[in-house]
Amino acid sequence: MNNHQGYQIRRSSRAKRLRIVVTADKVEAVAPLRMPERKIHQFMRIRAGWVEAAKNEVQQHVDSVTSLAPASYQQGALIPYQGAQYKLQIYMTREKQIKIAFEQCFTAYVPECISKDLNQRELSQQIQSALISWMGQEAAKQAAAYADKYAPMYKLTPRSISIKAQKSRWGSCGIHNDINLNWLLILAPAAVFEYVLIHELCHIEQRNHSAAFWALVARHCPDYQQQRGWLKRYGASLMLGL
Ligand SMILES: [Zn+2]
């Protein structure tokens, strides 16, 4: 693949004509199999201004996506959870491990023996990773509860449900009905989490996104459009993680 001219050429048997795809990390010229390279470069030269403008637009979009995570996991930091934000309190303890508790707000119990050897940034990282594993466990509990609620309704029983760290998807349903859910969904409103699980459960019966599939989703989750809308709007921020 040559990229010295600032774009990559990708051949596609489905491309009828040259198409330019601009994403956050690359510019691609998607060309029909037989189009001569010379013609591709010629076309890209003509469209150089358009490509520049598209790159700027994509970059502006990337810049406008802000993380839900606090800059530092310190006393009073705001932690996103189930569509809201909760204050973090930090207490020193004599235990051996960091413990997270949640009740109106988040509390991190930090062992004195750990904290005395850490600077501010290291302590923040330790609390962050304790929170992330706490969130993963919560996501698993939540997913199990929703599956118990919905699986019997239309006999949509998954073989397993796993909580995963995924960079680009919210959930998936494999051919043997193993469902994966992104742990970050626990940061979204509970109704959004619920919708994504329902969506994957419905794939047990409909392995596509046909009208029949969406009708099945709507039977379980009549306001699913609203939850999809939430993911469209805030999903990129959510994907930035904690
Ligand atoms: Zn789907």
What is the name of the CATH class of the largest domain?
A: Alpha Beta
> What is the helix tally?
7
* Shape, principal axes of CA atoms: flat
Per the CATH scheme, the topology name of the largest domain is Zincin-like
> In percent terms, what proportion of residues is strand?
15-25%
What does this structure look like?
42% of the residues lie in helices and 22% in strands. The chain has 242 residues and is of the alpha/beta class. It folds into three domains: 8-64, no CATH class; 78-136, no CATH class; 140-239, Metalloproteases ("zincins"), catalytic domain (Zincin-like, 2-Layer Sandwich), CATH 3.30.2010.10. The chain has a four-stranded mixed sheet with strand order 4-5-7-6. Strand 2 and strand 3 form a beta hairpin. It is flat, with a radius of gyration of 23 Å. The protein starts with 7 loop residues before the first strand and ends with a helix. The structure holds zinc ion (ZN).
List keywords for this structure.
binds zinc ion; 4-stranded mixed β-sheet; 3 domains; 3-stranded mixed β-sheet; 42% helix; 242 residues; flat; alpha/beta; Zincin-like
List the helices and strands and how they pair.
Layout: E1 8-12, E2 19-22, E3 27-32, H1 37-46, H2 48-64, E4 78-81, E5 84-93, E6 99-103, E7 105-111, H3 112-115, H4 120-150, E8 160-164, E9 171-173, E10 178-182, H5 190-202, H6 211-220, H7 224-239
Helix pairs in contact: 4-5, 5-6
The structure holds zinc ion (ZN).
Provide a compact summary of the structure.
The chain is of the alpha/beta class and 242 residues long. It is built from seven helices and ten strands.
